[in-house]
Amino acid sequence: MITLTKAQIYTKYAGNIDVWLQNGSGNEIALFSDGEWNQIESIIDELSISKQKVSSAKKSDAEKPVKRTYKPITPEKYAEAKEETERFLGVVDANDYEAILSELYKLA
């Protein structure tokens, strides 16, 4: 389970596993179980892709005349968003979900 403490340790070492293994305290290293460092890396990759999509959308929106219409969410889009949220919640401590994503977003 990814916790806020683990996210903070990850950002402390800027995601560099070698530096963490060489310089991390025994307590910092003992907190992580197999694969959690890589899970955090995957979350950051997904955050980075989302960040790029938002940035790209903002640029293209700035070039277009403002015309906003309501589009109901399709069942497919709802299912996709729900699946993505459940995937994150499956590996991220739900109590600190927003704080963890905020911490990891620094590296995205």
List keywords for this structure.
mainly alpha
Task: Describe the protein's topology.
Blueprint: H1 4-12, H2 17-23, H3 26-31, H4 36-63, H5 75-91, H6 97-105
Helix pairs in contact: 1-6
Q: What does this protein structure show overall?
A:
This protein has one domain (1-65, 94-108). Helix content is 70%, strand content 0%. The model has no long low-confidence stretch (mean pLDDT 80). By secondary structure, the chain is mainly α. The two termini are 20 Å apart. It has six helices and no strands.
Q: Sheet with the most strands? A: none
Question: Quaternary state, please?
Answer: single chain
Total domain modules: 1
Q: Output the number of helix runs.
A: 6
Uncertain stretches of 5 or more adjacent residues: none
Could you tell me the number of beta strands?
A: 0
Strand content: under 5%
Class from secondary-structure proportions: mainly alpha
| Head-to-tail CA distance between termini | 20 Å
Portion of residues in helices?
A: over 70%
Which overall shape is indicated by the principal axes computed on the Cα atoms?
Answer: elongated
The pLDDT mean sits at 80
Q: Gyration radius, to the nearest Å? A: 17 Å
Order of helices and strands: HHHHHH
